[in-house]
Amino acid sequence: MKNFFRRFQSFLNLFYLIFAILTIPLNAEQKKFLVLPIKGVIDLGLSGFVKRVVKEAKKENVSSVIVEIDTFGGRVDAAGEIVRALEELKPIPTRALISGEAWSAGALISLACEEIYITPGSSIGSAEPRAVGIGEEEVKDEKTISALRAKFKATAEANQHNPKLAEAFVDKDIELKLVKIEKEKFILTPEEVEEKIKEWGEEKVKIIKTITEKGKLLNLTAEEAKELGLVKEIVSQREELLKLLNLKEDKLIEPKPTWSENLVRFLTHPLVSSLLLTLGFLGIIFEIKIPGWGIAGTLGIISLALFFWGHYLVGLANWTEIILFILALILIFLELFVIPGFGIAGISGGVLLLISIFLALVKHPLHIPRMELLQAFQVVVYSFFATLVIIIVSINFLPRSEVWKKIILKQKEAREEGYVTIDLTPENLIGKIGKTITPLRPAGKANFSGKILDVLSEGEFIDKDREIKIVNIEGNKIIVKLEKNA
């Protein structure tokens, strides 16, 4: 009887084992998988989207993640955040599908995946550090290149990719050769080739080809990446990869950025940031020159607010920058409406505004990498340059344009129709007493015996309804000062 129960127990164990083996693939097929799109410029808005999707994927307990990549690159700090987000997915398998270009930051994200697949005509590499802006500038300092090279190497090693290829994506001073030693292929530097020749003999070490020459940045085509073992397979499209991985399309989850995430990406783009700053600067300058408050100032404040709001949402600006920005506006408002002239308050407000803008453009204010510093400098300089150009064009060309002719008054006030001119000769006006009908900052209007004149104070602020005296006339400028006996 004991033997019977032992045999029966063994039979049950065998049955459970077979059942478990048969149901494992069925259960795997039941699970959903994620396709994560990495398209366009790599920025902090995109990294925010990726971090949100990764959190949702962990909650959904997806079976695998396919990262579809087509990008020329972007911010290295944003790429670093995406890499960390992908690392958080482990042990969920991650596969990169390059369907276009995986350059610069895109190459780093590809290396962060456990397997890399690529479509024909695509490429990977070209990760030399550059400052993203209107005119991208190469960053040549060894400290930045060394740090980025180490990041690429560490990421490649963590996912079992060739670290030498990863370093060559970043550093053009690296030279690599494909070498065959007794039927096995190796990727070696010239120094390593010499060592192998000494170890194996020259007849056993065969150089197949030079992968990259010194002075040239490594960029691999689909066929080259497959030959060098960086890419696992070349697939024609996503559907072929899904078939290869035994994944069904009806289990696919493909998240899209929300409208707010797209808006933030738009507002923080270097070109848009420069445009918003330009509009902000122009609005403030026009309000300083024109008495009162109008459309220019309102548009300027809205533009600057959008600039700070977008950078706050992606984590660049924080409450320090926002408080500095608000304080700058308060000082500028005080200068315009309360304090006479343009002095300490106005200058302090302008300085605080520039500091808040600069801090909102860099992620690490206490330790600013050269790339971030250069990007921030570019955005501010482009904005100032655009502001200067628009002001020069407005002064020199706008009065002669057709648009200007349509909005100015063309009617002549001829003497024959009853109009008389005001005699601005010094002997007739100097010494006359009048009353201001608008504040003088220092320009404004005043009433002299029923005649409204445009006047200019000697630099001091004079409030409305104050008695003033004409003290000088310079061309068509009527200079006045506050009447002391008033």
Overview of the structural elements:
The radius of gyration is 35 Å and the shape is elongated. About 1% of the residues have low confidence. 49% of the residues lie in helices and 19% in strands. It is an alpha/beta fold and 486 residues long. The strands form four sheets. Strands 1, 2, 3, 4, 5, 11, 12 and 13 form an eight-stranded mixed beta sheet that branches. It has a five-stranded mixed β-barrel with strand order 14-15-16-18-17. Helix 13 runs antiparallel to helix 14. The chain has three domains: 194 residues, 2-enoyl-CoA Hydratase, Chain A, domain 1, CATH 3.90.226.10; 140 residues; 68 residues, Nucleic acid-binding proteins (OB fold (Dihydrolipoamide Acetyltransferase, E2P)), CATH 2.40.50.140.
Spell out the CATH superfamily of the largest domain. 2-enoyl-CoA Hydratase, Chain A, domain 1
Helix content: 40-55%
Query: Which CATH class of the largest domain?
Result: Alpha Beta
* Cα end-to-end separation: 127 Å
- CATH architecture descriptor text of the largest domain: Alpha-Beta Complex
Major sheet: 8 strands, mixed
**Contiguous runs where pLDDT drops below 50 for at least 5 residues:** 23-29
